[in-house]
Amino acid sequence: MKEELETPKLSEEEEELKRLLVPDVATLPLNPPSAVQSNFVTYFAPDFLKPGHDQYVHRHANGLCVIGLASTHVAFKDEGGITSVDFNVGKSDRSGVKVTGKRKKNAQHFESNTALCKVSTSDASYIVRCCVKGSLLEVNERLIKQPELLKSSADREGYVAIIMPRPADWLKAKASLLTSEEYKKLRVDCTTQDSSIS
């Protein structure tokens, strides 16, 4: 006769370990988290210096901050979409910055309100700001030829710049930024107020 295989009884401690180490398939997300979700903490600067000028700041554990336009930025509401990105703002062309070495020689030091670039639509133009005081390490030159990346791939290839703030400057900036949850709640509240007014 066939011997039936019995699963061995697990002790209470082994049962607890199994529950901690082996995830329940029903609770797993349908898609794995993106690299941005895994490696960065996202903050938002809503209405930065002007209404509707929402920007994001992805903060990496190493201190780098990736700056870009939030999906609710007023530039995305224009009919024709974004037509151009110009890094020639202020006294110098930001795209000409080449940073080298461990100490980031030649990095420009910016305040949080310093202009990074000008984003143009068919109707208007908008200034994108640093949001964080720090050293400009890189601007995304791909946006000059492919401005549509700002909308189609904002979290990945559509970033505007990479900034390296000092720890003390980051703590000051962080106090003025919103977490993802706070930002979503703010924007949901704004849209419900707008719809009740109309």
From TrEMBL:
GO annotation, cellular component aspect: nucleus
Taxonomy, superkingdom: Eukaryota
InterPro entries in the cross-refs: Abitram, GCV_H/Fam206, Single_hybrid_motif
SUPFAM superfamilies: Single hybrid motif
Sequence similarity: Belongs to the ABITRAM family.
The protein's name: Protein Abitram
UniProt source species: Daucus carota subsp. sativus
